[in-house]
Write a structure and sequence with these properties.
The complex is a heterodimer of chains A (503) and B (559). Chain A has 503 residues and is of the alpha/beta class. In chain A, 29% of the residues lie in helices and 13% in strands. Chain A is built from twelve helices and 16 strands. In chain A, helix 5 runs parallel beside helix 8. Among the domains of chain B are: 145 residues, no CATH class; 213 residues, no CATH class. Chain B starts with 7 loop residues before the first helix and ends with a strand. The chains are: A alpha/beta (503), B mainly alpha (559).
Chain lengths: 503, 559
């Protein structure tokens, strides 16, 4: 279990620099993912923004194009132009590294049932299953869970079995921010599903401190003296004993429970074992694998909100300092990938149907969902679409920052970690025809887009480009990324890759 | 207010000292870790009366699954076990979806994030405890003579283990946790071992989950009679939202929770505890959707105080009909809150019972908390308010919208000639339209509350639209017209639907499960029959529920 004792933390806090493994300490397991011969592992990351990408806006839309977005470039191919929602790509100098795939489409029920890899007509959360698992979603409103394992889990099974964390689900948004008078928690805050006697939600870590403890308990600071090493050895031994007792308790209960209870406890024991496996792992990677800064205590969880008009929106609620959380979590994930502590990450920036307050993030007085509907209010100079796009850009910014960190981190094979990675940023919707409203709106899975970066398996061989893929399923962006890391090209009811991504 | 003991209950029970009165090998639910076999009877402890191990009708025993402590329960449990008031479980445990209650075990799925979060909470809590000599002394219950004081360590393991696992530890378990004493010797610090043992116990599934095993009922496959400790745990989390006190565990040990009469007697004194008031208040808040109130902190705090005072007065102090929660003609308000509501000022900066006056208000539905529900498009939503009244107070199963209907749209378009809300919602009322059939159930209820703003403030017109005057004429299709929340409460009570709805919602809360099957529904019917269709006391409803077979037995769900 995570080493979380004063002595250890006293000298971990503030430590940086190169991590030193503890080969002399038997309790510290050797890097399971350390690779011989200078070959680097491939890594996979799916990022998710819980919003559509476009909406109606009189400044941008016309009768011919009644909805619009500010994400998709006008130009096709390399050196694409940058629009407002994609600004962070230019800010980080990533146009040559990130491809934008546009024209994607999730089909919907047109009267004969939910189609293959499709969704029901009601919009919110209904596209999660087809996008994330490639499986057609539930037919009934409220049935929003994925119907198959998600890409991160498939990749974890394929290439992550010998890493400390087979899969690492993380969520930046710390809460749903709606109470019992609205949607709350559940599928809209879940990005990862696994097959385990049925399709099970895999809840993410949203605490930077918890993530730090989970990932880096096997690290010691550089220059640790013998006394410090002895202390670490003691703490690791004590932790190991704690885990033994916890597992023993679970074993005893499994022997006595029956039916569903037994299965639930077996899953709990599996989770303990996964946790135990990750203990003491100091990772692989090369000299770039360092102990990151201890993120310290987490920002508190913010209050909830109700839907409000932009003009009287409570700009202090629905915010748990996700800006700081995103920065800290990104730094930790960067090092987790660099050190090969995991090879598969599911990183949710914002919940689907997202109520996160966008004022601290963008200066616009509304949550992300309502920016897509009501706009930003009279205090904003931006049009509704511009304000909404700024909310999307906030997600893109943090994803792009991770791309940039990986791009600038050498891997053990002399390439960058990004070169050995396939990473995507997916969105909940696009814009266009909304069959629910029989109108053009933000509630659409037409004109969807995705971002994809990394050079694993020949991905983005020609550098970042704008690829128009009319009618392609967004899950095919994921199967392309999966294929790039050697995890096959099938996700539920979707298979095959987008060839242009490898051209 | 009744002379309930206040929060010092927790530390009072901590100071009881080392528990020595149980033969742990004979303790119910205290399995031998070496054999995995139950070494004792689950029906009771060392003494007690004859127990009933047969349900009245085994076919009416409902499913009950393994329930993990919610974040709120985890916080309360640490508070009452070790006096830890930090309450940061929400940072590290998976978010508890509100369905509307936060304890639906069917939404709980174990994952590695749960394990690391629980361990972090456990190790933090253990570290804080050993750093606080006062609290540590109360938890230990003995004064160690040195790092190797095995007797004191064993006393701590037995005493604290019983409280943490909500049952006595088996001898095998005691010996295993005793192994943590080696760290005390190694470090020459008794507390080192204590901290390690605490961390292990507070991370253990026996702590994180409410484990129910019970004794098989003859002739009823899959049906089990809960043991006394299991009943104590159910009672405690249902009525207090936290772990059983030593006193309650003693009741279990004495075998006094094995019969409906024994349980009913226990409920009596449990309801005297301040935590019962907190729990009843929270039940109503979760049920009706105002657990998380938005808005100005001072106003929110005043409304929370108002709600708690209403529950305290009606259910605990006056012990009157629960219906008074909906029809009391005064509320607990300071000048600030009264001014917000537009009711006569009590002339005090502190809350006083204050008549609602002639403002169309009565009881809980008239407060800003309830009226905060169902906002949309920056204002009250007649549809959302009506929908919530239908689903929460009438317990109506509203079918999902037809596939071709949009339910999350931009605000209904206004007429250039008239941009008022009534006109905006005209499409919902168009006879024969696809909207009309459902919205006729919702909108007329919501429009009857329109003169009360998003936080219950009285208003005469829509915000920023003086031309849009608001009216209070509402209608409940099967119960008649009303004007304002006071009369809505009257129509609700007259409808005859509310008693069964309260029973249903309380049953869901007790069982930790929203979805009800046929057995559950029949049990709700029985419960409703017990309280009748007229006025009833809420504590009577609680007692009927906890003394029923639904609470004292369980059925396992096979895969």
């Amino acid at each position: 279990m995570a080493i979380r004792v004063l002595n250890r933390r006293t000298f971990l806090r503030g430590a940086g620099g190169i991590a030193v493994a503890l080969p002399a300490l038997e309790i510290m397991m050797p890097a399971r993912s350390a690779r011989a011969g200078g070959s680097a592992a491939t890594r996979y990351l799916i990022g998710f923004c819980g919003a559509s990408t476009g909406r109606r806006d009189s400044n941008y839309t016309s009768d011919e194009q009644p909805t619009a977005d500010l994400l998709v470039p006008e130009t096709v191919g390399a050196n694409y132009d940058i629009k407002r929602a994609a600004t962070p790509l230019a800010d980080f100098g990533l146009v040559e590294d990130v491809s934008i795939v546009s024209g994607l489409h999730v089909p919907w029920d047109e009267g004969s049932g939910v189609p293959e890899a499709g969704r029901r007509v009601q919009f919110h959360e209904s596209a999660l299953s087809p996008i994330l698992s490639g499986m057609r979603g539930g037919a009934n409103d409220g049935d929003n869970d994925c119907k198959g394992p998600t890409s991160d889990q498939i990749v974890g099974d394929a290439i992550g079995q010998d890493s400390a964390h087979r899969v690492l689900p993380v969520c930046v948004q710390a809460a749903s921010y709606r109470g019992s008078n609205g949607s709350s928690g559940g599928a809209n805050g879940t990005l990862s599903y696994r097959e385990d006697g049925g399709i099970q939600r895999v809840s993410p870590i949203s605490s930077p401190r918890q993530l730090f403890e989970s990932l880096f308990s096997g690290f010691v600071p550089p220059g640790a003296d013998p006394a410090q090493l002895a202390e670490l050895e003691y703490q690791a031994r004590r932790t190991s004993k704690v885990v033994d007792l916890v597992k023993g308790d679970a074993d005893r209960l499994i022997a006595r429970l029956g039916g569903e209870d037994r299965r639930r406890m077996e899953r709990h024991l599996t989770a303990i074992s996964e946790f135990e496996d990750a203990l003491g792992q100091s990772g692989g990677g090369g000299s770039e694998c360092v102990l990151p800064m201890d993120p310290g205590d987490d920002p508190p969880i913010g209050n909830s909100t109700t839907t409000s008009s932009p003009d009287d929106y409570d700009t202090t609620a629905a915010w748990s300092d996700e800006e700081t959380r995103a920065l800290r979590l990104t730094d930790l994930i960067h090092m987790a990938l660099t050190c090969e502590l995991t090879r598969s990450v599911a990183l949710q920036y914002t919940y689907a149907h997202c109520w996160l307050n966008m004022f601290p993030a963008t200066g616009h007085t509304n949550d992300l969902h309502e920016l897509g509907h009501s706009g930003a209010g009279s205090d904003s100079d931006a049009s509704s679409l511009e304000a909404f796009s700024d909310g999307i850009a906030w997600n893109v910014k943090h994803w792009a920052r991770l791309v940039d960190l990986l791009k600038n981190t050498p891997d053990i094979d002399g390439r960058s970690v990004l070169d050995n990675t396939a990473m995507t940023l997916m969105f909940e919707g696009g814009h266009g025809w909304d069959p629910e409203a029989a109108a053009y709106s933000v509630h659409s899975t037409e004109n969807m887009s995705a971002l994809i970066a990394g050079g694993a398996g020949g991905l983005n061989a020609s550098g970042g480009r704008h690829i128009v893929a009319p009618g392609e399923h967004p899950a095919r962006v994921l199967t392309s990324a999966m294929s790039a890391v050697g995890a096959g090209d099938t996700l539920g009811e979707v298979s095959g890759v987008i060839p242009e991504l490898f051209a | 207010m009744n002379p309930r003991s206040i929060t010092s209950i927790a530390l009072l029970s901590l100071s009881i000292g080392c528990y020595q009165g149980v033969d742990v090998d004979a303790a119910p639910g205290a399995e031998d870790p070496d054999t995995g076999a139950d070494s004792g009877s689950s029906s009771g402890g060392s003494g007690g009366e004859d127990t009933s191990s047969e349900p009245e009708d085994a076919s009416l025993v409902p499913f009950a699954g393994l329930r993990r402590l919610t974040a709120a329960e985890h916080d309360a449990t640490l508070r009452d076990l070790i006096g830890d008031e930090l309450g940061d479980s929400v940072l590290f445990l998976p978010e508890d979806p509100r369905t509307p209650f936060d304890n639906d075990y069917t939404t709980q799925t174990p994952a590695q994030s749960l394990i690391s979060g629980a361990d972090l909470l456990a190790s933090d809590a253990a570290a804080r405890l050993v750093a606080d000599a006062t609290r540590l002394g109360e938890v230990l219950g003995c004064e160690p003579t040195g790092p190797g004081d095995a007797a004191c360590f064993e006393s701590f393991v037995r005493t604290f283990g019983r409280r943490a696992f909500r049952r006595p530890l088996s001898e095998g378990e005691v010996q295993q946790y005793m192994e943590m004493a080696a760290f005390a010797v190694e470090r020459d610090d008794f507390n080192e071992g204590v901290e390690a043992a605490l961390r292990a116990m507070l991370s253990a599934p026996s702590f994180l989950y409410r484990v129910e095993i019970g004794e098989p009922v003859d002739g009823a496959d899959g049906v089990f009679a809960l043991g006394d400790y299991e009943v104590a745990t159910r009672l405690s989390y249902f009525l207090w939202g936290t772990t059983p006190s030593d006193e309650l565990l003693d009741e279990a040990d004495a075998g006094r929770l094995a019969s409906p009469d024994g349980v009913a007697a226990t409920v009596g004194w449990m309801m005297e505890d301040e935590r019962a008031l907190d729990r009843v208040t929270r039940f109503h808040a979760l049920w009706l959707g105002y657990e998380r109130l938005p808005g100005d902190y001072e106003l929110v705090e005043a409304m929370q105080t108002e709600n708690r005072a209403l529950m305290e007065r009606v259910i605990f102090d006056e012990q009157g009909p629960w219906q008074d929660v909906l029809r009391l003609e005064e509320t607990y308000a300071s000048d600030m809150l009264a001014a917000h509501y537009g009711i006569p000022l009590p002339g005090s900066e502190t809350p006083q019972w204050t008549p609602y006056g002639d403002t169309g208000r009565k009881g809980l539905l008239s407060g800003g908390s309830f009226l905060s529900i169902g906002q949309k498009f920056g204002d009250t939503s007649p549809t959302q308010r009506g929908l919530l009244v239908r689903t929460r107070l009438f317990c109506m199963d509203v079918p999902p919208p037809a596939p071709d209907l949009n339910v999350d749209v931009d605000e209904p378009p206004g007429d250039p000639e008239n941009d008022c809300k009534w006109e905006r919602y005209a499409a919902h009322r168009a006879e024969g339209s696809s909207c009309e059939s459902c919205h006729a159930l919702f909108d007329p209820i919501g429009f009857g509350l329109e003169a009360y703003g998003p936080l219950g403030e009285l208003r005469t017109h829509e915000p920023g639209k003086p031309e849009c005057e608001l009216h209070t004429e509402g209608n409940v299709a099967e119960a008649g017209d009303f004007s304002g929340p006071g009369e809505l409460a009257d129509r609700l009570l007259e409808s005859g639907a509310v008693n069964r709805c309260v029973s249903t919602q309380l049953y869901r809360f007790a069982m930790g499960r929203y979805e009800l099957d046929d057995v559950d529904l029949e049990l709700v019917d029985i419960l409703t029959e017990k309280i009748g269709d007229e006025d009833f006391r809420f504590d009577t409803l609680l007692e009927e529920l906890v003394a029923s077979d639904a609470f004292l037995y369980r059925r396992t769900k096979e895969i």
